[in-house]
Amino acid sequence: MVSLYIIGVFAVVIIVTLYKGIKVVPQGEEWVIERLGKFYRTLSPGLNLIIPYIDSVRERMTTRDIILDVPQQEVITMDNAVILTNAIAFIRVTRPSDAVYGVEDFRMAIINLVMTTLRSIIGEMKLDEALSNRDMIKARLKEQIIDDVADWGVTVKSVEIQDISPSPSMQKAMEQQAAAERERRAVVTMADGNKNAAILEAEGKLEAAKLEAQAQVALATASAEAIARISESIQERELPAMFLLGDRYIAALEKLSESENGKFVVYPADVQQAIKGMLGSVFK
């Protein structure tokens, strides 16, 4: 009975020893092994043997890409505008021992490093510059954190800015500013239109006045020439001249009588004498 008990204990010890000494590491992982509390080596994927009770598995690290979601945070720009931004980082553990012993929690450390670096980069930019240069922010962010995380045995494959937008209060202020700007442009456009219309109207009046003056000058010139010709002609042909002048005189009286304002027209009793009176001393 005692012998069976001893055999059973040995069997259990052997099973436990084999369990502790044989390690099968799956693909995509590397295990950090400590010997008596000190880093000893890293196990690669596949079958591995360690010394039971002396060696122990300190950490099972994944060697696949890790996605870190950097939470949204408020950032103040150089011109004191508040914007909201978050990011996402793709990293991979390349040296598991450094990731275990280099920092307490490499995931949390990288998230905080990305947040502080992002605040620093955007804090050096103005609002419009920050909203329109997402690629430049991403490039600078990766450049500034890549050396720091390398000390932790981690490689940054990519950092993407998920969102960068003004805060609700800032967005409301920007909308009000945009509305005020549109209203100002509408007033300026209307004022320019009125100004151009007034200028065109004044130019039209000026051109009309010039043409009217030219017409009056031409009419006066024509009248002077006509009078000169008539004066030359009537010296030798009194009767035809009187006929011509009398005919125009009567025609003028007829037009005057047809006018809407001509309520009462008086014809001279002796048209011939009236015409002679108009010609004056020419017929004497």
Which keywords apply here?
single chain, 284 residues, alpha+beta, three-stranded antiparallel β-sheet, 8 helices, rod-shaped
Number of strands: 8
Helix content: 55-70%
Based on CA atoms alone, the radius of gyration comes out at: 54 Å
Distance between the termini: 182 Å
User: Largest beta sheet, briefly?
Assistant: 3 strands, antiparallel
| Number of helical elements | 8
Order of helices and strands: HEEEEEEEHHHHEHHH
Please state how the strands of the largest beta sheet are arranged side by side: 3-2-5
| Percentage of residues in DSSP E strands | 15-25%
Which structural class do the helices and strands define?
A: alpha+beta
Strand and helix layout:
Elements: H1 2-21, E1 22-25, E2 29-35, E3 38-43, E4 46-49, E5 55-62, E6 66-76, E7 82-93, H2 96-101, H3 106-123, H4 127-132, H5 134-150, E8 154-166, H6 168-234, H7 238-258, H8 271-279
Antiparallel strand pairs: 1-4, 2-3, 2-5, 6-7, 7-8
Helix pairs in contact: 3-5, 7-8
